[in-house]
């Protein structure tokens, strides 16, 4: 049965979903009125009735509110910006201009567990004005009004070092966004987070909580510069951190291509017919006391001498030792008399190189490279020390999927989009990117403002447009292969902007003293009164985009007008997973209704007020769940 919630165009309510999961798994925890009985939960958590007064946890002022904000539905939506889009008919790349927590919530509807890799370079806590504040409510100088009307930009909060909440503000911002971002990652997905020394220890604790301590993979040190400062009495910082966390144990890091240097470490001193090999230690870092199950006597087959572990346990179990011995995979030294063997690791069986957690500037570029790169694209030094695209390409090399979605919700100058394009051209991949950047105002006297960029998000778009133009120019006069054409076709991006919902119904507040049925009737009355002027205020395409997002369509959806409908403008919307016929006309013609009554296998979406009672009943009866009226 319908409730008022089915008719409000909000994103999923994360808190309600959690409660529903608990209700499904543990119905005895809930009262007859359907409310969670916290005392029943306490009985499970502490069956002996002993109150726990102290425990290890990471807390700060505002943490609980930040968590609530993460799982509270957004009342915002996205509007498609055709004018700033590039190659929109073919590309599957997306750039979104807007506050990233709200955008992440919107993305949950179509992209939940669809993102393979997230890379972010969030703002470092340096005591500057703080851009992000998770109060996104109507009536309090709303975000979209603030962007257009504030001459000093969209500075939403302060975070000076004199502020008692200096660290808390930053932690609030990161915690809520990471909680939502995790829901977007595939089970085998991974997140890379760039950070400097100021908050790396706090970030590690947050990620341990959000992703799980067991899913920590690495703290990579990236050599961002290769020269020291001569005008300081302090240490010169030449590295930054990149924290790596997996979504779950399903993640597998991609091994890197082998090099000649690595292969040269293999040899064949005993002329083994299987070819070159190198030895791996048979000793365990753990002591015999720590690993008693790996302590057993081993016998050198050449001398007959038996040896027991002393300071170190063995690395392999007894049955594995016996298998290696039988297969001639143990090496007892050049004279065959060693007490402890090494294990032969054959070059012919080597798959690739294990990644390491130090990335030199020769390997992954540096900030000077990032500046030069941006200068060559935009012909002006519009941003200080951006990340080089090579750094993000190294991130992508660690992902075992070259046909995936890569998300960056602190996009800055759009380096991640540039890196995705570059890496696709190198390995023939078909990665897609989603970039999110708040329209933060550039400084009035900055190079960016002088170059005509009023916001950082304008730089994000301009940079990736310039990347497309540069690549297209490089193909001029050349023979274009099928593979080249595939790369050219996937260039570009669709631009969306975060904005107020087209449906006033999102402002509807249910009466807690009334039943769901009564609130549904109140909502219908509210809709009749508030949405009479809907199409006079909003464009059809804006309504189409919001409805399709609500229905779980990817932002790469395509619309094709259907000529068989003479009395209504009806589109076929597709995104590779979903398909639906949709119209936002104010009145639904009898011929249009008749078509769907005859084609009950089609999903049909329309505006509710376009229907009278009879048409709505007939469509609902014929199509059932394939009919949606907003």
CATH topology of one domain: Rossmann fold
Determine and state the CATH class of one domain: Alpha Beta
β-strand number = 20
- What's the pLDDT, averaged over the residues? 86
Features:
33% helix, 10-stranded mixed beta sheet, 5-stranded mixed beta sheet, 630 residues, Rossmann fold, single chain, globular, 20 strands, alpha/beta
Description of the structure:
With 630 residues, the chain is α/β, with parallel strands linked by helices. Among the domains are: 310 residues, Vaccinia Virus protein VP39 (Rossmann fold, 3-Layer(aba) Sandwich); 74 residues, no CATH class. Helices cover 33% and strands 16% of the residues. Helix 3 packs parallel to helix 6, helix 12 packs across helix 13 and helix 13 packs parallel to helix 15.
SSE map:
Blueprint: H1 14-25, H2 38-45, H3 63-70, E1 76-86, E2 94-97, H4 100-111, E3 115-120, H5 143-149, H6 166-184, E4 185-195, H7 200-211, E5 216-223, E6 239-246, H8 260-263, E7 277-281, E8 298-299, E9 306-307, H9 318-326, E10 330-331, E11 342-346, E12 358-359, H10 361-364, H11 367-378, H12 389-397, E13 405-408, H13 415-427, E14 432-437, H14 447-450, H15 456-474, H16 482-489, E15 493-500, H17 516-530, H18 534-537, H19 540-550, E16 558-561, E17 571-574, E18 579-582, H20 590-598, E19 604-606, H21 613-623, E20 627-629
Parallel strand pairs: 2-14, 2-15, 3-4, 3-13, 5-12, 13-14, 18-19, 19-20
Antiparallel strand pairs: 1-15, 4-6, 5-6, 7-11, 8-9, 10-11, 16-17, 17-18
Helix pairs in contact: 3-6, 4-6, 6-7, 12-13, 13-15, 20-21
């Amino acid at each position: 049965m319908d409730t008022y919630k089915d008719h409000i165009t909000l994103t999923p309510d994360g808190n309600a979903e959690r409660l529903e999961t608990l209700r499904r798994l543990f119905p005895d925890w809930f009262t007859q009125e359907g409310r969670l009985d916290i005392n029943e939960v306490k009985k499970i958590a502490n069956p002996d009735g002993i109150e726990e007064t102290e425990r290890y946890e990471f807390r700060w002022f505002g943490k609980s509110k930040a968590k609530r904000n993460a799982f509270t539905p957004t009342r915002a939506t996205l509007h498609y910006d055709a004018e700033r889009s590039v190659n929109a008919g073919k590309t599957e790349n997306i750039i979104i201009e807007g506050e990233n927590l709200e955008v992440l919530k919107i993305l949950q509807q179509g992209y939940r567990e669809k993102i393979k890799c997230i890379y972010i370079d969030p703002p470092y806590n340096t005591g500057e004005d703080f851009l992000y504040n998770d109060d996104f409510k109507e009536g309090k100088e709303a975000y979209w009004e603030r962007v257009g009307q504030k001459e000093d930009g969209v500075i939403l909060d302060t975070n000076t070092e004199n502020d008692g909440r200096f660290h808390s503000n930053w932690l609030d911002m990161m915690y809520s966004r990471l909680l939502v971002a995790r829901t977007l990652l595939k089970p085998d997905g991974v997140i890379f987070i760039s950070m400097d020394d100021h908050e790396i220890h706090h970030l590690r604790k947050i990620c341990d909580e959000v992703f799980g301590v067991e899913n920590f993979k690495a703290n990579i040190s990236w050599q961002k510069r290769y020269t020291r400062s001569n005008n300081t009495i302090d240490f010169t910082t030449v590295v930054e951190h990149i924290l790596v966390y997996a979504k779950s144990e399903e993640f597998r890091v991609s091994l890197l291509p082998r090099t000649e240097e690595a292969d040269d470490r293999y040899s064949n001193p005993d002329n083994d017919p299987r070819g070159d090999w190198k030895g791996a230690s048979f000793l365990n870092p753990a002591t015999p006391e720590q690993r008693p199950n790996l302590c057993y006597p081993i016998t050198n087959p050449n001398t007959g001498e038996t040896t027991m572990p002393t300071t170190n346990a063995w690395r392999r179990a007894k049955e594995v030792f016996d298998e290696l011995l039988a297969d001639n995979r143990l090496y007892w030294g050049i004279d065959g008399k060693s007490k402890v063997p090494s294990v032969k690791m054959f070059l012919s069986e080597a798959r690739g190189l294990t990644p390491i957690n130090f990335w030199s500037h020769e390997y992954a570029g540096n900030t000077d490279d990032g500046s030069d790169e941006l200068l060559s694209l935009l012909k002006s030094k519009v941003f200080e020390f951006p990340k080089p695209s090579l750094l993000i390409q190294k991130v992508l090399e660690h992902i075992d999927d070259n046909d995936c979605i890569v998300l960056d919700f602190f996009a800055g100058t759009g380096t991640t989009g540039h890196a995705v394009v570059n890496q696709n051209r190198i390995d023939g991949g078909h990665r897609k990117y989603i970039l999110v950047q708040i329209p933060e105002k550039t400084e009035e006297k900055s190079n960016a403002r002088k170059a005509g960029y009023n916001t950082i998000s304008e730089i994000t778009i301009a940079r990736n447009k310039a990347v497309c133009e540069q690549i297209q120019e490089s193909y001029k006069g050349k023979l274009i292969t099928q593979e080249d054409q595939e790369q050219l076709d996937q260039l570009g991006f669709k631009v969306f902007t975060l904005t107020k919902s087209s449906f006033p119904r999102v402002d509807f507040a249910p009466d807690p003293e009334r039943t769901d049925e009564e609130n549904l009737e109140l909502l219908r009355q509210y809709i009749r009164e508030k949405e009479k002027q809907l199409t006079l205020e909003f464009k059809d395409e804006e309504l189409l985009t919001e409805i399709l997002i609500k229905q779980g369509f990817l932002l790469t959806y395509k619309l094709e007008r259907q000529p068989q409908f003479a009395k209504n403008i009806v589109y076929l919307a597709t995104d590779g997973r979903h398909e639906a016929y949709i119209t936002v006309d104010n009145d639904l013609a009898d011929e249009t209704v008749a078509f769907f009554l005859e084609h009950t296998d089609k999903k049909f979406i329309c505006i509710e007020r376009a229907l009278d009672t009879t048409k709505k009943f007939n469509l609902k009866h014929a199509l059932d769940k394939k009919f949606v009226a907003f």
